[in-house]
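Exercise 7. Given the components listed, write out the predicted structure of the assembled complex. Treat all entries as one system.
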Amino acid sequence: MVEHAPVLLMVVPLLAAVFCALLGLRWKALCLPLTIIGFIAALYFSVITFLQVSASSDHQVIYFLGGWNASEFPRGVGIEYRVDLLNGMLLIVIAAVALLAAIFSKQFVSMETPGKEPQYYALFLLLAVGLMGMTITADAFNLYVLLEVSSLTSYALIAMGSRRASVAAFQYLIMGTIGASFYLLGVGYLYIKTGSLNMQGIHDILIGEGLLESPAVYVAFLLIFVGVWIKLAFFPLSTWLPNAYSRAPTATGCIIAPLMTKVSVYIMLRIMLTVFGPEYVYDELSWSGPMVWIAVVAIIAGSILALGQKDLRRMLSYLIIAEVGYMVGGAWLLAPGGMARGESLYSTATGLVGTGYHIISDAAMTLCLFLAVGAMIVKAGSSRIEDMKGLFRKCPVTMACFVVGALAMIGVPPTCGFFSKWYLISGAFEAGRWEFAAALIISSLVNAVLFFRIIEFAYFGKLPEVDDAHGHHQRHDEGGMEENPPSMLVPLVLASVALIAIGLFNKEIAGYLSQFLNTVAMGGQG
Amino acid sequence: MKKLAGIVVFTVGLILLYGVSSLDDFPSWGTPDSPANKSPLSQYFIKNTIVDTEVPNMVTAVLADYRGYDTMFETVVIFVAGLGIFAVVRVFEHGGASRVVTADTKPDIIITNTCRLLIPLIQLFALYVLAHGHSSPGGGFQGGVIMGASFILVALAWDLDIALKRFSEKQAFICSGIGILIYAGFGLASVFLGEEFLNYGIIHKILPGVDSPEMARYYAMLGVEIGVMFTVTSIMFLIYGLLATRGKMTAGL
Amino acid sequence: MEEFIQSRFNYWIYVILMMIGLWGMISKNNLIKKLIGMSIFQTAIILFYVSVAVKSETANIPILPHHGHDYSPKIAFAHAVSDDHENGGHDDHAGHQAHPVGPKIPDPDGYANPLPHVLMLTAIVVGVATLGLALAITQKIYREYGTLEEDQLLEKVRADDHG
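Answer.
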């Protein structure tokens, strides 16, 4: 059974989703336990898979679906799963984030989407299934199918919210469909030129037949990249993101915000490193100059727009755009010509390590902040920053977790945010891209301003005197502590502990990442 | 705004044309020598599907076996659409049935009698398309859509309530779930028998009267297509019902 | 030039369709028109893929003809007996037994490339699902805001945001 872990980690939550939709028709109370069981199983199998990967000699586990293995059949006859150190870690992150978000959702689902709990949880599970599938698959077309699974579920999950959410979901749907269609077209161009759909197979043919200078391959890269760009919400194609994420139902925001863009960044890395290969991306195209500049603009724009927001969730959504800028910039830091000069990828790619690290830590940070903000909104009764007054007295544990998340976002040492920024900044120095380093530092300062403003409100702000419905002045009970229920606190505390844990294990994670990059630089993975 | 859109559209068009325009780089239409058509993959499928799976229709074999995992998620996409549409538009109205039966909503005698004749034939044809998908164009999706259309025809000729009496919303959800369970069940059966997920060949050990892995693949593909048909039929009907009634699931057009 | 256009007219058509669809998606004001654009856009991609699979003049649809038994090593012999029951005394069957030739291998040039067809079956299904969901979301928007014109909609949304 152990050798089937890579596929079971997707099939078990899939079955849980189906049972959720079926049994939920009669027993609504079963939905949440089923969801949690599904995610625990996914977490268990992804940990097993990761252990297998780190134990194997070439640091990867390959699984041939349907038994169409590459030793007896041409590569790409069937669909192939390939787990390496980076996506192995990412699978664990996805399963864990989804599990925590599912536990957290208990209070919200019946409140925000009454009567539709079975469908909600089924879609929730399928979203995570789609995301895990996107990370694990090694087949370019299978990626498209799973991309659509995760996109359709997220459109539906967002549109279930308020009336404002449905407009945001529609815009997201149009943009998302354009993105996915561009991706599909790009794969089509690649298929015509190479005749393969397997990622490694495409790469081998591109290199083997010297197709690197072909205009069709260039257009394919452009199409795939722009498609992923839209999904990434990388500036300037990010206009759909703030509305979609901030108007979504609370529990939806808690799973989509941490995972969707992060998985898309991983897809971009996979396209760059596995499908086209560093030879093509860094040497043949000389995009790293403009790409890093666009990333700088994305970081600055995201941070400045975040400063102007009065709504807490909207502010976080703009910060996500800035964070995407970090990761995309880090991935493109590698200077052109490095591969041609025979330098191994690893020696010049601290930026790539930083990107990988930041995918993981940003997923954890965003989860922690969205969970904390969800809990704070319940207590404050509104999502406006001014209404957060006095929350420290009301719910100290929630606010403590929020502070941990904020510190990680700013990049204060024991938390993971510091280390991922550290790798990104030293990557920028290595590549001589001062503007990127400067943008990172500016954005950290902006984050500090943003979060200390909220913390100040919440800590020093007096609870306001409010007029109740009858016009009487009413004073809130200031000493009263009304902490959130454990179903919200437990995932929140776990998420903030994870932030520190990911920071403390920075050596191990960075070690795995550089090992992963080593295998890439060794010229493919077999 | 329109100008910007125009610029975007023309840039995209030019980029796409740039990709296909170079004569020595991009294969012309219909040439058998294009890399896609000459690749070992495509040649393998044409030469070996019959040997590996006993299915003469290569498209069915590739769809349901070689790339069966894609197809499983394709079914999931349909399932997601059903769940999503339900989640977005369904409104629950207790009591207050706002159904008004007027003269012109009364089913027409010519239409209903024609449909009485046609619907069994349509359903038989759907089953034929499903079962014959191995040796002619067809399969679970196509059959499922035709089957779903027969239920939609009931709803159109009479009204949705009559159709829902035959195939209720709950039953539709259950059927769509069962379809995916059948598909995943075939996959898990091969895992439990010790092979990879969806490696149908091994199922010959438990299928009575089947002694070779090839025939096991043949029958497993049929089973999988039946699962697909369950899902597609019920979700198509659900989508129609939900969209036509703006989520009320009563009365309808 | 004429040959250039002729030899790749499928790509020309797909690019034009694609541009029409994209134009509809991003410039039209009405949400339903946007969705029509989306459908055209996705159909253009389907056309593109399917036209790749064509092998003009030589190739047939990717389905082996009946009596495909000739191609299959196992079934040809395993079913030799049962064929008797089914077909009675068919002529070609007699010939089959007289010359038990080995299995034929289908000629790759004789059949269209099956893989793009399979991919597009998937893409069609995805397109249907997306369209259905999009229509549902549009319906919800109409129910909530009473309009499908984007400019009016955005005005009402702005009023929502500030109100």
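Discussion: Residues 84 and 93 of chain C are 8 Å apart (CA to CA). DSSP finds eight helices and no strands in chain C.
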